[in-house]
Structures are given as structure tokens and as C-alpha cells.
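Extended Data, panel c. Modelled sequence:
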Amino acid sequence: MNYPFGFYSFGKNIGIKDDSLDFAVIYSQKICKAAAVFTKNNYPGSPVIVGREHIRTGKLQAIVINSKNSNVATGERGINDARNTCKALANSLGISPELILPSSTGVIGVPLPVDKILKACSEAKENLKEGNLEEVARAILTTDTKSKISFREIEFNGKRGVIYGMAKGAGMIEPNMATMLSYILSDWDVDQDLYSELKFCVDETFNCLSIDSDTSTSDTVVLMASGEAGILPSQIFRKALYEICLDLTKQIAMDGEGATKLIIVKVENAKNETQAIKIGKSILNSPLVKTAIYGGDPNWGRLVMAIGKVFDEPIPYENLQIHFGDLSVKDASTEQKILLSKYLKENTEINLKVNLGMGTSKKEFYGCDFTEGYIKENAYYTT
């Protein structure tokens, strides 16, 4: 595995819930330029509150993460726990607490087992290994079934560096953003504002993702750039960063709770981006559309419904063109419905193209089907 130079990490089990990995630290030997984007939920988790404070300087040197408990809706105690976690790790690593971003994911409304976390922080330095980031990618998982990793090696002016991303997320996902954590590490710096580069890529990828329309309280995407390899022009850096974010977005969608299919909705010829977003999200979040795709039911009326219920963006029916793959959906004949059903049943990546005939704007959205597995996962989540 190829890692950015100068990053060390580990993942381990500290007994938060079960015997799986549930605690991780990422550390850079050099203070990094950093940027982050957080949830817009009105009840952000304590780590998000503290993380927002720490990222204001635009610098980070470490990230501390626990899974299985989100430290959300835990009041002042939760905020103090997040701060004390950073202090304990800072003491172990010999850095400032303000250079550490805390991150938690898991069940809401349960206090952190803070004694276990503080003990793990105090032992952090001796557990660090060079690279080792795939271990972190496993430690941050909750209901995910697999790790999500994407990286790009970049050579420029005779130097080689790596941008490496990981993410977790399977349910409670409807950005801005979702029960989604993503950490992107780079030994390249960029010749433009780091936050602007990250925000552009997040808006075009993670913020076009939905599993179940529920916006989590914990979402964080953070980018750390050490500059050890040098400085890249914006167009090279952004291209690689976008590809990583898009790859992780699709991995999250495909690993949605109970999911069997990745759904890509392409809205074309919208009046503007706002119209494209409203209609794309309406289609992607419709339980009736998602269940029909799961069952291979070519019930195209559900697509018309999902578009028509966006009341403030009326689209003339005669303008609409809808395709699954290359197959036209609107007014489908019996024979066409057989072909549509076959397409839905035989493919695990479903491409749905919706032409609104209203303008020139376009946008893509990413999600998954809705199955019995999602119900089972969430009906008994804490029991």
C-alpha cells in the first residue's frame, strides 16, 4: 500500500462495545495545513464542536477517532470529554491539543467510556506505525461491511507523493453531510487555498450522496497536507482530490445498509443547479423509487411522482426524458418494461438519466436501493 510520507497511525480495540477495532490515531511528523467540512445538523456532536474550534487556525498534526459511540447529545460532559481526549493525546505525542481534531461515530446519546479513551491516548505514541492507514480505515467502521480507501500517486517535477483517503458510512446518510467520516492525507501541498479545494470536491461528491435522507450529527471530512513532497498546481491537486472523493462516495453508496445496488442519478438540462439538486435528491431519496429498483420493478410512474412532488420546480411533462441505462422509461410499452426489469435485476450499478429540458445545468447524485436489510439493521440498532 502506498502512503503519504511522514504519516503514522494505528487502530486498536479498547473495548468500547465489542472486540472489533474501535480507536485510532493519525499523526503527522510535521504540522500540516488543514481544512475540514462538518455536518449541518442542528445538534452537532461534541467532537464536531471542538473540531470546528481547532481547525480555525488551518493547521493540524493529528486526528483521534473512536467508533461505536458518537459522543452526541451528551451536553457539557461530552464537550469536556472531547477536549480531554485531545489533551491526553497531545501529552503523549508532545504537541499542542489545538493541533488535534477529535472525531467520533456510533450510537447517539450515550456518554463516552472516557476512561478507556484517555488510557488509549496516553499510550498512543508507542502504538504508532509508519503508514498503516488501512488499520485506521477498519477502526472507524460501524455498520459498514468493508473498509473504504482510495489514493492517488502523483509525480510532478521529478518528485513523487501520495494523496490518500479513507471513509466510513453506511446509514444515516444525507449530506450536508452524513454519518460519514472521511480523512484525506497528503504529502503534497497545493498552490491555492486548501479549504476551497476541499469544499469544491465535497460539494460535487459527498454532498451528492444519500443513503436514507437522514443527516447525521457527526459528519466530518478533513484534509491534511504536509507539503513534504512539494507544492502541486491546483488543477493537478484538485483532479486527484476529486477522484478520491468520488471513489469514496461510490464506495459508501454501494455499502449502504442492506444495499445491493449503486444508483447513479444524472440530472441533465436543468434550469439551474438548484433545480437539478432538488429533483435529483427527490428521486434518490424516494423509498418507492429505491424499492422498485431493488425489486427490478419498472414502475416508471414512481419516477414521475418523485419529480412532480418538487412543487416549486414544475417541469412540463412533455419535456421529461427518463432512461435506465440506454432504455427509455417514459410511456414504456409492455415489451420495454420487460427489458427495463431485466436491466434493473441484472446490474449492480444502475444509471438513471433524467433530462428536464429546461436549461443547460447538470449534476450527478449517488445512492443505493432500499431493502429488507436496511430495516433489520436499523430496527434493532441498540437492542
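The radius of gyration is 22 Å. This feature is highlighted in the accompanying rendering.
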